[in-house]
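Data card: per-record layout.
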Amino acid sequence: MKAKTDDIVRLKPDLVLDFSDLQVDIAGDLIRSGIEVPIFNQRTVSGIYRMIRAVGSFVGCEDKSSLLVTQLEGSLAQLRDERNDISTRPKVYFEEWYEPQITGIGWVSELIPTAGGVDCFEELSSQPLAKNRIVADEYEFVRQAPDIIIGSWCGKKFKRDRVVFRADWADIPAVRNGCIFEIDSSIILQSGPAALTDGVVALAGVIGKWLSCHSVSKVIGTD
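The structure for this 223-residue chain is written out next.
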């Protein structure tokens, strides 16, 4: 990942926050320029909470950051309770990238059951690197038979037809019933509070449509 580090240095920031191995080179350039650069590497909901508390401590707002974490925990617990009694939970395939096909990062996998679904590829969610969440066997998607497919291509507009016309996918329940949706990557794949607010609300909305309409022959998705 590249950045105009000279422009950042000219701003004379007291602190720059980086995320993950993708920004290591950026952080190195800034550190060599004398700027403090903590690098976060959160991949789970609990990791996001830790990051929020850490940022709060950096800026002298420990109480506010702790309150925010408490509020986020409460809202997720409320949603979890609301969806707790679902008798039939839809199987969800969350696609973070399309070529190669990459499944959702850890916090997304955690939010799916909170919102009432079952993550088809939960076993991959603990992999911190996207390359280790690639599903190489195309037929594995057919075997998993997701009821819902959610596209959230990081930084790129989701194209529904790229999913619908994949070889051998016609009989996957989500494709057959039109249960293919997009969630904007800026709210669900952002490594911060947005995933736990707007992101999970969008996820719950998609799963809610299936819960109310899964007995109907077709659910209209987002093109």
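Known properties of this structure: Residues 81-213 form a domain with the Rossmann fold fold (CATH 3.40.50.1980). The beta strands are 18-19, 39-40, 91-98, 101-103, 118-119, 148-151, 180-182.

See the next section for split statistics.
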